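User: Quick one: structure for sequence A, then sequence B.

Assistant: Sequence A:
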Amino acid sequence: MTFRELYGREPDGRWAAPGRVNLIGEHVDYAQGLCLPFAIAERTVVEVAARDDDRLRLRSLAEDGAWEGALADVGPGSPGGWAGYVAGVLWALRRAGHRVGGIDLLVTDTVPLGAGLSSSAALECSAALAVDELFGLGLGGSIAGRRTLAAACVSAENDVVGAATGGMDQAAALLATAGHALLLDTRDGTARAVPFAPAADGLVVLVIDTRVRHRLADGQYGKRRAAVEKAAAALGMPSLRGATLDEIRTLAADLMPRARHIVTEIARVRETVMLLDAGRLREIGPLLDASHASLAHDYEVSSAELDLACTAAREAGALGARMTGGGFGGSAIALVPVERVAALSDAVRAAFADAGFRAPHIRGEEPSAGAARVS
């Protein structure tokens, strides 16, 4: 099905936004922490045409559930499903005072869904960039403007879809540059490129998609965020960004492990950035391993499949491995010497088969550029 077949006209253009892999700094973006994502080659592509009214007609070749309605009909909980990520962006931009109207939109390609690679943010950001250009908002051409678009995408996910995510994924999709990771400070919104080119060091970042689909709006993500906010309030702090290990030891038993993950993960990001800035990429493996252990035990967002992927990868020669993304399924990453990729991939697949799990999808990723118009 083509855009013309659906809407009876050609699109005004095509826009694409990447998924992301978070190298380290998981579940800290809503705690005013530090994250280190990078954009990947897989992209969500939207074809869009502006309308002269306020109606939205939204279709996807990858997802069921087309939606059509007025922009005035968009709000918390409406529309449901994938369409909420798109319609929510227009709603958020209009609420922020930007003049936007209706669109016809078709999603033609997508970042792998439910794999922990932020397909939702890729959809939001591709739509946001399209709307920015079609309605002359003038935001997509500057870093500051792209941050404004990212904020609208976060609002769409938080307020319309109802997923209590932070802003890391949207920032990565809109601000990333090839050959670098993005050090994102979610307390003040600043970001800088950090050298990260695994191929130059004879390495590959393997993404191991467990094929266990996760959903951020299913409540578990929100429960973790609520616990972090409750811990900060108990300490009399606006966030856990400045908390110390000694301080979090005073927390209630149900909050202390969650807070410990936040504090130690932020410290791991700082150490990883220090090593990358110094050209010591091969030394970050133990930090990836420690991140996974913290996510599995203190934050309890891993799964049997993610744990097995990391364990099997390490045993087969990975320098380090960890789950990436929101957890409860999705993907793990492993930092692997090029010469070990084939054997390691075979070992992970064999481990999954022995455990009775579905065969994982395994692919290498290189840091890629952020969202852009493609035609």
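Sequence B:
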Amino acid sequence: MKMKTTEIGRLGETAVCRQLEQQGYSIVRRNFCVRGGEIDIIAENGEYLAFVEVKTRKPNSLTSGFDDVTAKKQARLIQTAAVWCAEHPTELQPRFDIACVVMQGKQILSVDYLENAFDTTGSDFIF
């Protein structure tokens, strides 16, 4: 039976959460949604508040998950993060990360994690 895209995405997100927790992060929220945007994982480590976009792929996928986080997608993530920060004031430094998970069936083959993948330069939001 073929897994649904949402199920594959959730498995990828869970793998990234585990990795973040092993690195001393606390998972603050998963799948924070507002109109026009969603953040897969919000995690903090006492210094940073990481807004993490997770892309899950099959091996030998034609595009990298990193390439799929376009300028338009980044703008939506920044806007959604701004809503989160307005609702949950913090002293932590916001950061935008991207995680690319490669899966074969239900098996996680790899997790590539890019800290500070992009910033708010050029956007109207100041954190």
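The chain is about 30% helix and 40% strand. The first helix runs from residue 5 to 22.

User: Thanks, that's what I needed.
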